[in-house]
Amino acid sequence: MSDFTTEQHSKHSYYLDPDSTPYRQGIFDVIRIFLPAFAWSDAADDADMISVLRGEHSWTLQIGKDTIVLQTEGMDENQCRKKLKQAVYQYFLNLYGGNHPWGIMTGIRPTKIVHRYRDTDMPAAEIKQTIMDEYFLREDKAALLMEVTERQRPFLLTPQEAKEKVSIYLSIPFCPTRCHYCSFPSFCLPKPHLQEEYLSHLIAECHAVGEALSAKGIQVQTVYIGGGTPTSIHAMQLERLLQNVHNAFGSHFAEFTVEAGRPDTITEEKLQLFMTIM
Ligand code: SF4
């Protein structure tokens, strides 16, 4: 980790340098650990500027008047980005302190990171120590992740099998109305012709992807139709989509899921459709 000191900060407002947009989400996720209601400021004038400058052997993180130089020689893009998140975390930990059991492991599937380590020859004790050192997990959370991933292993594909099978996710990004708390990329159900237009593009993409997978001999293992609320579109549209999914990807899936999170969008007709087509 880089050594740095912070100047006195009283502001909770930060503006991201537009040139640093590729790091927007990663930095945002870390700041939210300390400032749960955080939102980027739209104006540079009354906020501290955050910027990331990439050099050949180092990245420079600027937060207000503070400069943090990250040595990145020999690192790939993912390692550099992780180092950036570590630096932002340390910076805000210096400012705000607190006990953050999951450190910078802010994504929705933390087990994925541990499975990547387990796919190598790294011993379990070393993996546990690594996630504590690099992601700042508290010891009990690191132990929990190790236990969960240990139980999951027998049910997961091996790295070789994973090269021959894929899971398909299809998004219907529409809902009857928008929930206030929602963070998913979803929109209020648009006019019918726009729904049709979206569906046509989605179906065309299914066929293009299906052909590309067949050409490489890759099998579709699972299909997940999520959203939004997929059941918010008309039963005839759903039928058209499901038939095209089968045409594009085959019909023998280990799992086929359609999200139906809004009870007001579920009808007997749609349920019958799922029973017959899936
Ligand atoms: S139903 Fe789900 S996806 Fe749709 S707006 Fe509400 S929370 Fe978001």
Word description of this protein:
- This protein folds into three domains: 83 residues, no CATH class; 46 residues, no CATH class; 119 residues, no CATH class.
- Helix content is 44%, strand content 17%.
- The longest helix is centred in the C-terminal third of the chain and has 24 residues.
- It has nine helices and nine strands.
- By secondary structure, it is of the alpha/beta class.
- Helix 1 links the parallel strand 1 and strand 2.
- The protein has a four-stranded mixed β-sheet with strand order 1-2-3-4, covered by helices on one side. Strands 5-8-9 form a three-stranded parallel β-sheet.
- Iron/sulfur cluster binds next to loops.
What are the SSEs and their pairings?
Elements: E1 14-16, H1 24-34, E2 48-54, E3 58-63, E4 66-71, H2 77-96, H3 110-118, H4 124-135, H5 139-152, H6 159-164, E5 165-172, E6 174-175, E7 187-188, H7 192-215, E8 219-227, H8 235-249, E9 255-258, H9 268-277
Parallel strand pairs: 1-2, 5-8, 6-7, 8-9
Antiparallel strand pairs: 2-3, 3-4
Helix pairs in contact: 1-2, 3-5, 4-5, 7-8, 8-9
The chain binds iron/sulfur cluster.
Report the major sheet.
4 strands, mixed
Helix and strand string, N-terminal first? EHEEEHHHHHEEEHEHEH
What small ligands are held by the chains?
A: iron/sulfur cluster
Number of helices: 9
- Taking all residues together, what is the mean pLDDT? 92
Strand fraction band?
Answer: 15-25%
Strand order of the largest sheet: 1-2-3-4
Distance between the termini: 51 Å
The coarse silhouette is globular
Q: Tally the structural domains.
A: 3
User: Which class of secondary structure composition applies to the elements?
Assistant: alpha/beta
Low-confidence stretches: 1-10
Q: What is the number of beta strands?
A: 9
Q: Return Rg in Å.
A: 23 Å
Q: Percent of residues in helical segments?
A: 40-55%
